[in-house]
Structures are given as C-alpha cells and as structure tokens.
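Sequence only, no structure available. Ideas?
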Amino acid sequence: MLDAQYTTGTSSSKVREIVVNGIVAALYIAVSALIQPFGFTQVQFRVSEMFNHLVVFNKKYLYGIILGVFLTNLFFSPMKAYDLIFGVGQSLIALAITILCARFIKGIWARMIVNTLVFTFTMFLIAIELHLAFDLPFLFTWLTTAVGEFVVMAVGMPVMYFINKRVHFDKMFKF
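Reply:
I predicted one. Tokens follow.
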C-alpha cells in the first residue's frame, strides 16, 4: 500500500506543496518585517504584496500567501483584530477573483495586470478598516492605500516575471 503512494507521487507532491507554501509564507513575513513601518500606514507600501503575483503562475500559491498575510498581521500589525479580518479577507477575495479571471486570460503579463488592478480596487476593504479603526476619511484612504498597492504590484510585475524565468514558479509543484 505504501509503495503505491510513493510511485504515484501523491504523498511527495503534497509534502512539496506544503513546503513551497511554507517558504512563500516565510518570505512574505520576512519582507514585511523589513519594511514594517511602511506596511501598516495609510499609504501601505507593503513590498511583500508582490508575492500576490504568484497565483498567476499557479493557484496553489494561494495558501502560502494567505498564511503569510495572516501571520504578518498577527505578529506585526498594531491593530491585529482589524487586520486579521480585513487584511486577510481582502487578500483572500482578491486572490480568488484573480484565480477565477485567470481561467479566461491567457498570458502571464495580462494575468499580472488583472491581478494588480484587482488588488488595487479591493483596497476599499482596507479603507473601510482604517475608517472604522481610526475614523480616517474613506475615499481619501481608499485612494492612498490603492496607490500604494498599485505601485507595489506594478513594480512587482517585472520582478516576479524575471524571477520566474530563473525559478519557474509554474513548475514548483510538479516533479
């Protein structure tokens, strides 16, 4: 029975999926920790958000990204309760929309552009969070957080594209 598991690769591919997503989560946390003062402000230049582009290569990266966002907000956020709900929720919603859209969009660049726009638009959830927590003006806060997200995601597109040329994100879960 055990031999059949190893020859089909099911067990080892599941372990590989867990390990790869653990590495993604760890990288998200590490990069977030480096820029912590800029990641939780009204503008939110959270450089680790560029890892959101991983889902355009393979939807299985969703788990590592969400775990990274969750743990980053748990460890570093000055307003944990809000960030664990709104921050993780915004990431999950935006990633899910991107994964659904990717079915109909061919080409990595087009998918990354859509991903960038989806994450930029869904920053209204973070604006709601900051409005509730600090009574910041909703529209202005949506604008500033959306601009910060757009810049990070736009800069992240060529970065992730060229890293992919070397690392091959799309093949990371295959043997």
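The helical segments are 2-8, 10-34, 36-39, 62-76, 80-102, 108-121, 124-134, 138-167.
Hope that gets you unstuck.
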